[in-house]
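STRUCTURE:
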């Protein structure tokens, strides 16, 4: 079931890393028709595959059928992810969706709708898998409850993203430039993410337990024994809850919550029904072990570590994708899609490897550490060993069946038996976990240092600049008459302070395309803002170019260049008037245009000796 967490997050990554096109290539009705056909094909194929497996099980149960059932679930879930990606990248359905004003203003709504499509695919899988599941495991729950249990267990993994995304939409909708600018910055995104990550970790359990349909465990002997064990271990909690996972037929327990005020201990009805009091004590001792060893805190750090890795490697991914695009010689029309696909695939692969293997390693070893924590509260682990035997017998699953987030039941029993024979194995495992955690933290700190240098130091600019230059030089050799490539090269040289090369590249752009507004504007800005000692401060030429650019484009940054050109030529009245136009047309970065206007007005006041008419009446709109 934990695999469902990965499926949901991969689907979310597919959606969020794809920039929807302004004009999808397929008309909406045609795209929706393909979507319907694909969905019906998936449903029919899933039904046939699970029906075949069900028939094989009916002819006689064999040990390999459990593995066949789980493998088919995994294959169809991965197939669902692939079809979901086809809907996003191939049919461009998200582009059609973003044509609605409400979706464009609140992107979270669009993401929720598409994730609902993915949930629908998973529901198709679970619906057709139900009969085979019942023939194998005899859980006794209905089809609807089986599907709802899968959904309710998996959906909470999306809660952190949902709260983050809704809050971001609200910040973007507010009429304040400061919060939006902070959220758009790298540092702002990191602070924002970490704040919500810790907030969800603290308050999330209260929401999750409600979503799972948990209820307080009734007063009685079982509750009294759990309360007494927690008191003796000095573990505080908010509530002991009955957890109706899969209709309460699964023998399991859990604990969630970083702080005691929002910490919950969960037990299923089957656990209370089938285990003896001493076995229940052993299971709760296992959960207390998670609390005592602060595993939940480390899981939070591990999630933050993924942010660090993404933060450090995103620039490399983007430039690598662009470089691959050059090698593949994709046309410019598909460049955004190509880069998006490469970045998405790389991020998904990184996520999968990081959580499937890194997170899986720590989950397995934390579970083992919690297993041996029973020795803190009990003299022997034999009750926990007998519990594992009951779990294996009741689930119908082979005890030696491998698991990415737990050691197999046989492996857990074997290790506890070694600890019974030689307590030295207890300290060996604690030492192994400590060393593993220390190595991980050192690696993350090193990656964080690289990421800091990439984004806030000069290293990132140097590397990205060199990569971009190599790509553009290669492209220019093959397409010397392409004005867009010369413009991109000019912008790159300008950003790196190579004014001579930038001027030359801008002029080459204009030789090939004299009406290129962006080249006219950027060259005008170069001439208007360069220091006089560089030899590139050419105010008259700047004004000439800026006027041409303004006639071709009404965009506020172009108007601002014209205002700046008026300013450096001493035409302060014209600069102020043009600055007002730029401010009025600006949708974002209004604070910048306001500062520009104040600069022009101040110069005009000094020249005239009196305030400009209307001074102080403009406000940020």
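SEQUENCE:
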């Amino acid at each position: 079931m934990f695999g469902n967490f990965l499926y949901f997050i991969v689907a979310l990554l597919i959606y969020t890393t794809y920039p929807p096109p302004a004009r999808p290539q397929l008309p909406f009705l045609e795209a929706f028709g393909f979507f319907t056909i694909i969905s019906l094909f998936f449903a029919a194929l899933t039904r046939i595959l699970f029906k075949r497996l069900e028939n094989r099980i009916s002819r006689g149960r064999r040990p390999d059928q459990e593995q066949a059932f789980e493998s088919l679930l995994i294959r169809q879930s991965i197939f669902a992810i692939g079809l979901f990606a086809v809907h996003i990248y191939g049919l461009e359905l998200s582009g059609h969706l973003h044509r609605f004003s409400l979706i464009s203003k609140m992107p979270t709504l669009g993401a929720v709708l598409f994730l609902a499509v993915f949930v629908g695919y998973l529901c198709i899988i679970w619906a057709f898998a139900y009969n085979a599941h019942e023939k194998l495991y005899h859980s006794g729950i209905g089809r609807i409850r089986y599907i709802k249990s899968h959904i309710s267990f998996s959906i909470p993994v999306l809660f952190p993203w949902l709260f983050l995304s809704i809050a971001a939409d609200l910040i973007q909708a507010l009429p304040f430039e400061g919060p939006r600018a902070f959220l758009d910055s790298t540092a702002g995104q990191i602070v924002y993410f970490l704040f919500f990550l810790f907030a969800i970790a603290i308050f999330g359990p209260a929401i999750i337990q409600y979503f799972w349909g948990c209820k307080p465990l009734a007063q009685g002997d079982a509750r009294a024994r759990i309360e007494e064990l927690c008191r003796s271990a000095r573990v505080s909690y908010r509530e002991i809850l009955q957890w109706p996972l899969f209709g309460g037929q699964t023998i399991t327990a859990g604990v969630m919550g970083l702080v005691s005020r929002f910490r919950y201990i969960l037990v299923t009805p089957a656990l209370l029904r089938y285990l003896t009091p001493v076995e229940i004590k052993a299971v709760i001792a296992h959960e207390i072990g998670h609390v005592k060893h602060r595993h939940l805190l480390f899981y939070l750090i591990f999630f933050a570590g993924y942010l660090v890795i993404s933060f450090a490697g995103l620039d490399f991914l983007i430039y690598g994708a662009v470089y691959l695009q050059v090698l593949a010689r994709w046309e410019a029309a598909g460049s955004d899609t190509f880069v998006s696909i490469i970045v998405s695939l790389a991020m998904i692969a990184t996520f999968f490897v990081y959580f499937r293997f890194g997170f899986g390693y720590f989950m397995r070893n934390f579970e083992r550490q919690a297993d041996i924590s029973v020795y803190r509260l009990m003299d022997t682990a034999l009750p926990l060993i007998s519990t594992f035997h009951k779990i294996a017998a009741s689930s119908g699953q082979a005890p030696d069946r491998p698991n990415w987030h737990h050691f197999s039941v046989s492996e857990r029993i074997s290790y506890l038996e070694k600890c019974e024979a030689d307590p030295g194995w207890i300290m060996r495992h604690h030492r192994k976990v400590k060393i593993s955690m220390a190595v991980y933290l050192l690696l993350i700190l090193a990656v964080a240092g690289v990421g800091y240098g990439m984004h806030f130091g000069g290293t990132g600019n140097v590397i990205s600049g060199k990569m971009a230059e190599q790509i553009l030089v290669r492209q220019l050799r093959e397409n010397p008459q392409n004005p867009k490539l010369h413009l991109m090269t000019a912008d790159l040289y300008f950003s790196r302070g190579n004014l001579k090369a930038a001027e030359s590249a801008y002029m080459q752009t204009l030789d090939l395309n004299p009406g290129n507004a962006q080249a006219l504007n950027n060259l005008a800005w170069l001439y208007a803002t360069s220091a006089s000692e560089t030899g590139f401060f050419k105010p008259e030429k700047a004004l000439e170019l800026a006027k041409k650019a303004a006639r071709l484009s009404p965009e506020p940054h172009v108007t601002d260049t014209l205002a700046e050109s008026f300013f450096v030529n001493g035409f302060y009245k014209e600069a102020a008037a043009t600055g007002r136009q730029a401010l009025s047309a600006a949708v974002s970065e209004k604070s910048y245009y306001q500062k520009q206007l104040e600069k022009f007005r101040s110069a005009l006041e000094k020249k005239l000796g009196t305030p400009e008419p209307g001074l102080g009446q403009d406000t940020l709109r």
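REMARK: The radius of gyration is 31 Å.
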